[in-house]
Design brief:
Radius of gyration: 14 Å
Strand order of the largest sheet: 1-3-2
Largest sheet: 3 strands, antiparallel
Order of helices and strands: HEHHEEHH
Number of domains: 1
CATH architecture: Orthogonal Bundle
Strand content: 5-15%
CATH class: Mainly Alpha
């Protein structure tokens, strides 16, 4: 990662919510959150392989979606959560 990317990543990380935290909050896996980013459902910034989701983007995303829109299909809770 070059100096410019490190500065961008440092700035974004101050305002970003980690994928793991979002997944725990929504009771899903981090891969599900990454899939939502990949398909464009969840706005994000990517620097290298790292995904940055700002609180503003997350609030907007959660405000316009319901759990059914987030996770279509039957809900099956996972054990150990």
């Amino acid at each position: 990662m070059g100096k410019s990317n490190k500065k961008k990543a440092a700035h974004l990380s101050r305002n970003a919510v980690p994928v793991r935290v979002i997944a725990e909050t929504l009771d899903c896996t981090p891969q599900t959150i990454r899939n939502h980013c990949r398909t464009g459902r969840l706005p994000h910034k990517r620097i290298g392989r790292r995904i940055f989701i700002t609180r503003k983007d997350l609030d907007a995303y959660l405000g316009r979606t319901t759990r059914r829109e987030l996770f279509p299909g039957p809900y099956t809770p996972t054990k150990g959560r």
